[in-house]
Amino acid sequence: MTMGAATDNSATTTPPPHLPTSSTQPDVIDVTIHPLVLLSAADHYHRVARGTRKRAVGVLLGSASRGRIDATNSFAVPFEEDSKNASVFYLDHNYLENMLAMFRKVHAKERVVGFYSTGPQIRPNDLRIYELVKRVVPPGTITPPVFVIIDVRPDRESIPTTAYRVVEEVDSNVPGEKSSSNSSGSGSGGGAEVRKSFAHVPSLIGAMEAEEVGVEHLLRDINDPTVSTVANLVKAKLSGLSTLTEKLVEMKDYLTLVAEGKMKPNSEIIANMQAIVNLLPNLNVDELVRSMLVKNNDMYMVIYLSSLIRCVIAMHDLVVNKIAYNDEVGDGLQEKVKEKKVAMKGSGGESGEEKKEDEGDSKKVGAAEKKSS
Length: 373
Prior knowledge:
Residues 1-26, 170-194, 340-373 are annotated as: Disordered. With 373 residues, the protein is an alpha+beta fold. The chain has eight helices and twelve strands.
């Protein structure tokens, strides 16, 4: 078990003469996260930290080849950190070593390739956790471990993974007594220190054939068959636009911090932003505006005609159902009307005969009275 201290010596240290710089360390090209890791991380979070501000931490297992890391499996690690003091944390590394030994018995090819956190942001303790995880990496490993943030929030529309690697930067302007002692008597009063920080690495969501089959079986229970394909397409478009909005806001915040001097400018990031801006089309051309208007009018015309046809078909079906209902119900009514008519005719004949008999009797009585008189 490990308890963090109030100072972070692993993040800022004095570089020895034999310490390699970030340019000599092997680079990580990308990190591929498999579905089993996502499911395990989501289950870990819901069991441990659901409804709280805590986060879940675990170890990533997989393989690495030529700077490309495949995280195919993972397991949870008991982890706690103080909400008031960000430098104090608890990680059960004995449990980590025991679980790793059991995983090696099951699958010997899987090794530790890094660790994950449900974040959703980088915390001050992540560098210290990185040093603990680095201890269990097999000796002779060329590719360094990575740190992956798995965002388990359901309202996220973008890829839920963000990968980082640790880089070492030499800061030559460090004030204080420590820097003055390391400056070797230089008059500038500044020293050189190595500061570790996280650098972004491209992350992918990949799966093998067997994993794809399992994911498809899981999605069968989630998919709603009542939703039409057009609705799914519209939802996907809205999701893409919302993700694009988040990325643009993130770029704006970064440029704002750089302009205010709160963050160091990165030439690679700025070059990528310039390439994105250069790829944007020029929408101020009259021909393009006219073509877009014509295209929109054609699409709206198709939508309008489709709505009309749909309404006409619905009215036709309603009329057909009404006619069929009247035919079925009308036969029964006609039979009942016929029965009533027959009954009325029968009752009318009997009453007529009775009336005739009564009239004959009355005539006979009148004739007898005349004779007697």
